[in-house]
TrEMBL record:
Protein name as it appears in the record: Metallophosphoesterase family protein
PANTHER family reported in the protein's UniProt record: BLL5683 PROTEIN, METALLOPHOSPHOESTERASE
Tree of life domain: Bacteria
Pfam families: Metallophos_2 (PF12850)
Family note: Belongs to the metallophosphoesterase superfamily. YfcE family.
Organism encoding this protein: Devosia sediminis
GO molecular function per UniProt: phosphatase activity
């Protein structure tokens, strides 16, 4: 079994197109999309259109909730922009997404953690320019009761793979559309594959036209997003 995993597109169509083109040169049994699909100042409707047409098994992230209901705590300007841009069919699709999904008995997928789409899991998000790696006990507590061999999450935009002591594989594919802090502007996704020895992971960075995406963000009134997209060094506080 070979599966592509994407997450956190954030409306960045140039990045998504590059990832989809890279994926099209390969064979996959399934594609999973882990949420935060459209909330970004590039092309929210274009991102929704492509993800809906891709046949990916998609779940919702925190920003997807906020786009559907911009009155919720946490919703911001990019969520309101996305909602204004989406058509009725795209909003209905976003509204109908579930917070988690499974593929058979072997894979479980969520956005943040299994119970909270705003909680970071494999990394304790950012403290200024740093992120903190939690210990195994802190990671494992969120995996309690999940019997799947592979557990997928997104949200932090940091590509990472680890194994718990019991052998379960946890994977964050990183972000397709918004890179922060680590100086890697490429669009990121993951490939997981079950081989004779077990599940293995490839974390992939795909170069794309970051200048085009940055100019889209700036044209929509979000200069901080433009700077982050071009270089991947900005922190989340710079997005505005």
């Amino acid at each position: 079994m070979r599966i592509a995993v994407i997450s956190d597109v954030h409306g960045n169509v140039p990045a998504l197109d590059a990832v989809l083109a890279d994926m099209a040169r390969q064979q996959f049994d399934a594609v999973l999309c882990l949420g935060d699909h459209v909330s970004g100042p590039m092309d929210p409707a274009g991102a929704a259109e492509r993800i809906m047409a891709s046949g990916a098994v998609s779940i919702r992230g925190n920003h997807d909730r906020w786009v559907v209901d911009t009155s919720l705590r946490g919703a911001g300007a990019v969520d309101r922009l996305a909602r204004e841009t989406l058509n009725e069919a795209q909003l209905a699709w976003l509204s109908g997404l579930l917070p988690t999904t499974t593929l058979g008995d072997e894979l479980f997928a969520c956005h943040g953690t299994p119970t909270d789409d705003e909680t970071p899991w494999l990394d304790n998000f950012y403290n200024g320019r740093s992120s903190v790696l939690p210990g195994e006990a802190e990671v494992a507590i969120h995996a309690a009761g999940i019997g799947a061999e592979v557990i997928l999450c997104g949200h932090t935009h940091i590509a990472r793979t680890l194994r718990l002591s019991d052998g379960r594989l946890l994977v964050n594919p990183g972000s397709v559309g918004m890179q922060l802090v680590r100086g890697t502007p490429d669009a990121h996704y993951a490939v997981i594959e079950k081989r004779q020895a077990g599940w293995q992971t490839a974390l992939i960075g795909v170069p794309y036209d970051t200048e085009a995406a940055a100019r889209m963000a700036e044209a929509n009134g979000f200069p901080g997003w433009g700077e982050a997209i071009r270089y991947g060094w900005a922190g989340p506080d710079a997005l505005g």
